[in-house]
Each structure stands twice: as C-alpha cells, then as structure tokens.
Amino acid sequence: MDGLISIIIPVYNRASTLERCLDSIFTQTAPLQVIAIDDGSQDNSLALLKEYAQREPRLEVLTQANSGPSAARNLGIERARGEFTTFVDSDDWLEPDILAQSLAAARQHAPLDLIIWAYRREFPNASLLRQVLGPEPVLYAGPAVRHFMRRFCGPLGRELDKPQWIDSLVSVWGKLYRTSIIKEHNLHFADFRQIYSEDTLFNFSYTYYARQALYLPQGGYHWRHQGSSLSSSFIPNLFQRWYNLHQLMERFIETHSLDNSFREALSNRRALCLIGLGLNIMASPQNILQRYRELQRFLYHPLYKRALRHLDLSPMPLHWRFFYACARRGFTPGVYALLAIMNWLRAHYRTA
pLDDT per residue over 164-214, tens digit each? Predict the structure, then answer.
C-alpha cells in the first residue's frame, strides 16, 4: 500500500523496554502497520503487547514458539503490506518523525529502494551519535548502488581505517526497505543458529536489487547497549557460524558474477572478524589453554590465513597494524595478549 510503512518487531523477554519502543513508534506521523512477534517470551512481554493492541488498532500481535529473531522477522515479512518495511528491536526506539522524513525523502528521490539512518548508541550515562557514512546526506544511484552493496560485503582501501567498526553498517534496524523487492525476490533471514550476523546476508542480498539508496546523517534510530556484546557474553560455535556466513556470501558473489572487488572485500571481512571472534574466545568459559587453541585454529585455518596475508594494513592506526601483523605471522601469544587487553578495556569503558 503506497505511503504505508510496515514495522516488524521481534520480541523476546523485553517487558522492561517494550513500552518505550512502542511509544516511539506510535507517535510517528507516517501511516503505519505494526507487526510485533512474540518469540516465546517468559516474562510479561506478550501481556504488554496484547494490552497495547487493545488501544492501538495499528498493532498486530503474532506469537511463535521460541525460534529466534530471524524466524520472527520472516513471519513479519509474510504479513507486511506497506510500501516500505523497517525493523525495530524491542529494546530500542525511533527518533520522533523519522519515518515521515524518510517517506518525504523517498518521494523526492524516487525511485528510492533503501534509506539508511545514522543512529545513536544509548548507554546508561551517554548517548553517542554514529554517522556510519559521514556527516552529510549521500544518494547512491546507478553504479554507486553496486559500490554501496560492496560495503555490505566488506571494506576496501581507506574503509579499513576503523576495523573495529566493520559491522556498524550491516544491521537491519535503522533502515527502510521497499517491501516489493523483499517479496518479489523471496528475501528472508537465514537461521541465526546456522550463521552469525544474518543481517549482513540480508542487506547484501537486498542491495543487489536496489535501484537507489539514500543515507540520512541524523540519528533516526536509538540502539540501546545491553552490555551483551561480544566482549561480555559468549556465543557458542561462532567460528563455524561466521564461516557459514562467509561461504553463503561467496556463493552469492559467484552466482551473480560480481566483480573482484567483492571477493577482495569478503576476504577483508574474513580477516577482520578476528576481532569479534577473538573477543568471543576471551569470554568463553574454557580454560586458558583451550582458548589459546581455539584462537590458533582461526590463525592457522587456510582460508583465514590467506585473508590475513592479503589484508592491507596501511590505512589502519598503528595499534591495529600491530595486532594484525601479529595475526598475519601466526603469533598466537601476541594476539592472545592483545585480545585480553582489549577485552579488559571494553569491559571497563563501555562507551568507547
């Protein structure tokens, strides 16, 4: 339906944050269809959703047995009937009137198939704006859309200057998608139990079909930091899940005959995932020797060893150059020690 925005909200045990999320949505001035999917919550989330739906006819509440956010979003996509679709996590919230502003931009720059907002990282004592593509609006049209798609695949050249931010662009929240593209090409979220960062794969696939994309530098989305990042919570089988993601991306590149810049970008993504994987190893309940061996498994895996060897270190700050130089040489003790320092710093300086 023209002018309508479908908002899909996966909900799992978020009773404490859900009301603020919903209030930020229903105070928007754009026409809305809101689909909240309770993913088998054990707290009061479902009761809150049903109570809210009694006074808000634009809210549709769906339920499923606990299957994860990918399944919840896929269920929401099936019911979406808006011209555009956006995804909101139930512990986050929207900036006032950002959806109406985005609709106006879509009309101004038609045909526009994707809008990306800058976002704010919300900590207990700080709100930090992250302008992922710079301080000015940017319209990607024609060949530039393919360049933007490559950004989802991985960084190249000067984009490697902040390797810790490799995934600051890939989340599906903070974006507006044309619903017809999602449905016509049967795009969906892969099972998060099989791959990690299913958002990356969704965005990478979606932008292949987009005609134009627009970046808006105002903080349209508020991402609440829950203290559950890779530095503080262990994610089982992360190595295999990232490997599966990279293999699916490589298959997409080959199937759609994308140029070598995509292969180089994916190689860089493989190398840079050492940061997240290493911090996850640091959070593991395993003993030091087991963590050391797990890190060594990554450094000596032929695929990742090759990616590290081809990674361009020149755009990086000195500390990251040193870190990746150790990794490139397979110097596991040095990489392990640097990850331990990183893990300590992230635990003590959450807003860094």
Answer: 998 889 999 999 999 999 999 999 999 988 999 999 999 999 999 999 999
Stated pTM of the model: 0.94
Peptide bond into 135 cis (omega under 30): no
The answer to the question of residue 44 being in a domain is yes
- Which domain does 74 fall in, by range? 5-133+169-224
* DSSP type of residue 66: S
The candidate with the shortest Cα–Cα distance to 311, out of 296, 325, 294, is 325
Report whether 252 contacts 204 (CB < 8 A). Answer: yes
Q: Is 180 part of a structural domain of the chain? A: yes
Q: Angle 274-282/260-272 helices, nearest 10 degrees?
A: 20
Residues paired with 224 in a beta bridge: 122
**Two structure tokens written together for 244:** 């599966």
Average pLDDT over residues 225-252: 81
Beta strands in the chain (DSSP E): 5-11, 32-38, 59-63, 84-87, 93-94, 114-123, 126-130, 138-141, 175-178, 212-224
> Does 231 score more than 50 pLDDT?
no
Under 8 Å between Cβ of 223 and 170: no
DSSP-assigned letter for residue 225: P
Q: Are residues 77 and 101 in the same domain?
A: yes
Task: Give the three-class secondary structure for 118.
Answer: strand
